[in-house]
Amino acid sequence: RQLHDKKRAKRDYAVQYTRKEFAPYVADEDLERLCRYVELYADQLLPTNIQPIRVKTLTTLDLYHFGWNIWKYLNVSNQQDIAIFLKNIFAHNLKDVEPDSIKSHLKDEPKKGVILVWEG
Question: Are 97 and 87 in contact (CB under 8 A)?
């Protein structure tokens, strides 16, 4: 029970973080879907019938940093899984990038961009 509550608290925090970071850059309905995808990722469930999120203004680097932060904080998968998650969720923005490339750049230039890499 305690473990379950702790996992739910972490998931809820990841969703709040997602909401805060992406609210200015995505449509409301996309934000709700993105938060749902983060919940599924946190619960180690694969989203089905993914409708890719369209992001305005943010760079691929921002998306990588978001992926790194979620991956590091939730600690529920390996980096390849978060890379595939990002590739599927942000299919429009990452259409020309392979998961291996995403994985290798998750933490590039941590202080650059709108979404910064969390330290710690």
Answer: yes
Alpha carbon of residue 35 to chain centroid: 9
Q: Write the pLDDT tens digit of every residue in 22-80.
A: 999 999 999 999 999 999 999 999 888 899 999 999 999 999 999 999 999 999 999 99
Across 51-76, b (16+ Cβ under 10 Å) vs e yields: ebbebeebebbbbbbbbbbbbebbeb
pLDDT of residue 118 exceeding 70, the answer is yes
Any idea which residue has 């305690």 for tokens?
2
